[in-house]
Structure formats: structure tokens, C-alpha cells
Amino acid sequence: MKRAIVSDxxxxxxxxxxxxxxxxRQGCDQIYCLGDVVGYGxxxxxxxxxxxxxxxxxLGNHDFGALLDPEGFGGTAEQAxxxxxxxxxxxxxxxxxxxxMGFLARLPRTHVEGGHCFVHGSIRNPLNEYVFPEDAHEQRxxxxxxxxxxxxxxxxxxxxxxxFTEDFTFIPEDECSAGFLLGNxxxxxxxxxxxxxxxxxxxSCYAIVEGRRVTFRRIEYDVDQTMKKxxxxxxxxxxxAERLKTGR
Length: 248
Fold this sequence. Notes:
Helix content is about 35%, strand content about 20%.
């Protein structure tokens, strides 16, 4: 079994299209999505329609915000999620609108398969908790998170890909070029972001799991086209376009 794990598409159709093409080229059998299909980006409806074909999809905080309440959002994020909700509620036929909103309403906050857990934020707070690279030095936080993990937890939310190991180390994605082997102790793996990377690399990121090996993939996409779409929507704002170019 060869599984692609994606997260944080954020309504970026150009990025998702490029990643999906790479997933097909890599011969993956399944696609798991760790949430935040919508929010920030200019194509929430199309991205949501596409991700319905995934084998598993988890609820992200932006998906929840578009559906019910943007808890903890402010400024640009809140403005963007209200615009996103408007798109979801008005784009397409009444049947299409019901299908999209119903899909979001049914998304689980966690998915567990044996010793593997899939969440958006963290195993402790699947929807909202961030686990940043610098948290590797927060011993109490790491001890609590790892105590709840059986083998490995796959997550997104921070848009920063890499691996947390049980000895409180964070290994960035660019230091895992040969892949990371599961099974040598517990781990937390952030698969990065398809639609809005924030690790200084503008390219989309996702992970492939085959057997015990996890590899990260970086994919170029037509970022200029996505930026043009965002700039054409005043409620999204220039900041959301410009940050795509720098990966921040």
C-alpha cells in the first residue's frame, strides 16, 4: 500500500492540481487529507469537490470555521473565512451546496488505524492545537503528546513539514531526503501544506507512506496564477497573495 497524506490545501486549486498529478505519477493507492481544504485561497468550492474523492478526510479548523464558527480567528483569516463561507453557501445548485456543507459537517476530527493516528492539529486537540518545531524543546508538552500516541501521529496545521521524535528532536523536511523510517520509537509527522507552505519554501508539500518509510515531496505549481485570483478578490487581500511567493 502506498498512501499520499496531504494537508492544508486552503482553496489553492493550482497547488492541489499539481500535487494530485504528482500523487498519480508516484502510483499512490490512497489519499488521506488532514484538513483545511478551504480558507485563505480563491477556489474553496472546486477544492472541496475534489477532496471528496479522497479515501479519508479530517476536519480542519478552517473547515470548521467555514461551516460554523471561526473560533480564534482574527484579521485577514476571519475576513477570508467569511468570504469562503459565502462561496460555499452560494456557488452552484442547491444540491451542490447541500453536498459540500454536508460533507464538511460529517468530517471526523480524528482517524485511527492501529497505531497510526491522523489529525489536523495535535492528538490532544485535533482541531486547534499547534505543534511548532520549537515545541520540541517544551518537555512537558512533548511528554504529554507522546504519551497519547501509540506509534505515530500524522498532522498538519502549522504548514511546517518535518518529524518530531520521542527524544524531543524536530527533523525538518529538507533533512529527510532519504525518508524517515517508522517503528524506531514514537513519532509525530507534520506533512506540511499543499496550498500555503510556511517554512520558507513556496512549493507545495505532502508526504507518502509506503511500508515503514515516509518521504516528503515538494511540488512546484503556478503560484502566479493563484496570486492573481486572490488579488481579484478584495476580501482576501494582497497579504494572502504575497505570502505564497515567499512560503511564509
